[in-house]
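Incident review: delayed structure delivery

Summary: a single-chain prediction request sat in the queue longer than the usual turnaround. Root cause was a stuck worker, restarted by the on-call engineer. No data loss occurred. The affected request and its eventual output are reproduced below so the record is complete for anyone auditing the incident later.

Affected input:
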Amino acid sequence: MAKRLGEVALEDLYKAGGSTISIEEATHIYQAIAASKASDPDPRRVWKEVVSRRVLKPWHPHHLHQLVYYSVYAIWDVSINGPPLYWFPSLDESKITNLGRIMEIHGPKLLGTSYKDPIESFSLFLKFSVHHPETYWSIVLEELSVVFQKSPSCILDNSNKLKPSGAWLPGAVLNIAECCLLPSTHPTKEDNSCALVWREEGRDDLDVNRMTLKELREQVTVVANAVDATFSKGDAIAIDMPMTVSAVVIYLGIILAGCVAVSIADSFAAKEIETRLRVSNAKAIFTQIQKIQIRS
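Output delivered after worker restart:
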């Protein structure tokens, strides 16, 4: 069990710092933590103050970070309060998150004068989302550019008492790959928006690769057309490949064609791959031949 903050001595901090900090630096950390606790005993605010003061540095040992963090939250009741918070965004940082942008646009209309900003009004907005699922999830679906092939009759149907959690989006039909690839008026989902970022394995000397939404759509469409011309909708198609950009394109192509993607780890032995192909009743498999270099 972690020591409480008041039980952590200067010697504890110095030992946890190993050879990376001096006794003077340990003293500075000790005094800064004590001052933070004295100003406000709430663990969340103490830790936030420790972070904002940059008391702990990136080069300090992980053990020192752990000692301070767990001692600050030593009396924190996880069952009531949830996991103890580690990172606190600034107000500017919070406003550019996906949720922050939604709150800034819709918060004043939904919460009225009660809305202040994404940080101060988070609990109010959370409560609103729980009590008004139709309004909140309509906003989220629009934000995610979800397009239904058949629209749901409602967002949440609570009419069936045998389903205490209700039925979400009853009657809806969609193709999630289509939702991912369609162009949109959303500012982060235009044709020239970056859709994939990757670097070739083992080639850290090369630049990072990027693919736009338009480029991804074009490549996925090629795969989808090939699958659609050969198989029927609902057929299972397996993928036994490393997680490369080609695997992502193939996966989306299978889904876009209306088939079922069966993911198989490329590390599996032949017998395990055979079992998964048989159980899923896969009609085909995408894979690749590994190059083996033999040196004499």
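Verification: The chain has a mean pLDDT of 89.
Action items: add queue-age alerting; document worker restart procedure.
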